[in-house]
TrEMBL record, chains A, B:
InterPro entries: PsdUridine_synth_cat_dom_sf, PsdUridine_synth_TruA, PsdUridine_synth_TruA_a/b_dom, PsdUridine_synth_TruA_C, TruA/RsuA/RluB/E/F_N. Belongs to the tRNA pseudouridine synthase TruA family. Its EC number is 5.4.99.12. It is an enzyme of class 5 (isomerase). It comes from Candidatus Chloroploca asiatica. It comes from the Bacteria. One of its GO terms (biological process) is tRNA pseudouridine synthesis. One of its GO terms (molecular function) is tRNA pseudouridine(38-40) synthase activity. This is tRNA pseudouridine synthase A. Formation of pseudouridine at positions 38, 39 and 40 in the anticodon stem and loop of transfer RNAs. Homodimer. The gene is truA. Residues 9-102, 143-249 form the Pseudouridine synthase I TruA alpha/beta domain.
Length: 260, 260
């Protein structure tokens, strides 16, 4: 039995999320259907992590155990020929039997895009959160930086008895202004060993309170330290979020054909 | 009678183009309907220039003569409340009676976005042209630079007996690599006093031949000098193109509320 890793990109707009559900169009479901059409195998595909409805991915990773003999490039082309245009396989490679898309991952990178123009940019409306009013970007960047390091992120996730271990290590949390189609786009980039449910979106919702002057940077720090979900801001909309990359220990995944 | 200028942004994907046609959903038609709903006036709206089906705009300009007493901000909000979400009014201002969105314009800026990743980025598929294979960006930038200055652009437009004056002044033609959602995005920016029909798209189609090594930079220069449409490359797809800005003589249009 081979173990195959897939690198995926998708537009989350018309998916109910990454994970298979009883009803609706999921990334996992679409991928498993295309896999069966290509290989005649009915297989369960494992993703590096769940993305909510509306959340996009540029560098999602999946793994699948299979007896197919197709080489990686044939798998990429064969799946893309059978997948809808809002879900693409960017690369495939064979991995060792112990590789698991979720358990082996050591770091995830997310980007949240904000459109701070007075009127939203129509061409970007499905991938960027439009916010009204002025934002203090310097304070937002300061608040983000507080998150770097190892902390208990209980305040920034769904309060649930299931979430017992809420300590995560944030490798990087920064703000960048980018220019794509004019106007002001703000990218919030966060990278951590792993993320709790809704964690990026609650961080963004809380950082936006700081940006609007409704929460000071030191109050933001107290939210982190206090660990109370209700002290944090609202969960920011899903459609601004993109899973950018998933990292594995060196040598575990060697993508074949992806351009540098 | 007041003369009012409107600053528009739209996602061109679901429009048949900017200009009203007998059938289909045009930017002009949607705007005229919203104008009538807001003011009860049936008016003809003038755009700075035509954009084809699928072409987007970030800074399109329209003008309209009206007896409405609404202040500019009320017009912006009132129209946006009545317009579909893929067409937004970013700003409005009163202009002098001699202002005409098309005739008064002295410069147009366009951006063409290219996705040079092996597999297209799904979230960007409606606004970026995906091209396969490697591109020589340095040669593409060199070819673009040849276009700067005043030239006869007959080779880069639709061959038609109607197009008699084909000399235009290209203020700027450059290539930039930008980073939005990972991967390689290439922006081709061109700015000229005015553009001929399909001019940006034929330029892009020809510059892509240079990028792929199928035309040398000196052959590109000969295409410009020869003035023969058939020597140039194919017309690049509409959906990669965005009208970024329209410029007027200083003082003619003073947008009120647009963020810097």
């Amino acid at each position: 039995m081979r173990n195959i890793a897939l690198l995926l990109a998708y537009d989350g707009t018309d998916f109910i999320g990454s994970q298979w559900q009883n009803q609706g169009r999921s990334v996992q479901g679409a991928l498993e259907e295309a896999w069966e059409a290509l290989t005649q195998e009915q297989k369960r595909i494992t993703l590096s992590g769940r993305t909510d409805a509306g959340v996009h991915a540029y560098g999602q990773v999946a793994s699948i155990r299979s007896t197919t003999r197709h080489p990686p490039l044939t798998i990429v082309r064969g799946l893309n020929a059978r997948l809808p245009e809002d879900l693409r396989v960017q690369d495939a490679c064979e991995v060792t039997p112990d590789f698991h898309a979720r358990h082996s991952a050591i770091r995830r990178d997310y980007r949240y895009l904000i459109d701070a123009n007075m009127v939203p940019l129509p061409a970007l409306r499905h991938m960027v959160l439009h916010v009204e009013g002025r934002l203090d970007l310097a304070h937002m960047a300061e608040a983000l930086q507080i998150l770097e390091g190892t902390h208990d992120f209980a305040a920034f996730t769904v309060q649930s008895p299931d979430q017992k271990r809420t300590v995560r290590t944030m490798h990087c949390a920064k703000l960048t202004e980018i220019e794509l189609l004019g106007g002001r786009l703000i990218a919030l980039d966060v990278a951590a060993n792993a993320f709790l449910q809704h964690m990026v979106r609650v961080i963004v919702g809380t950082v936006l309170l700081v940006g609007r002057g409704r929460m000071t940077v030191s109050a933001f720090q107290q939210v982190l330290e206090g660990g109370e979900r209700k002290a944090a801001g609202p969960t920011a909309a899903a459609h601004g979020l993109t899973l950018m990359a998933v990292h594995y220990p060196p040598g575990l995944v060697r993508w074949e054909s992806r351009q540098a």
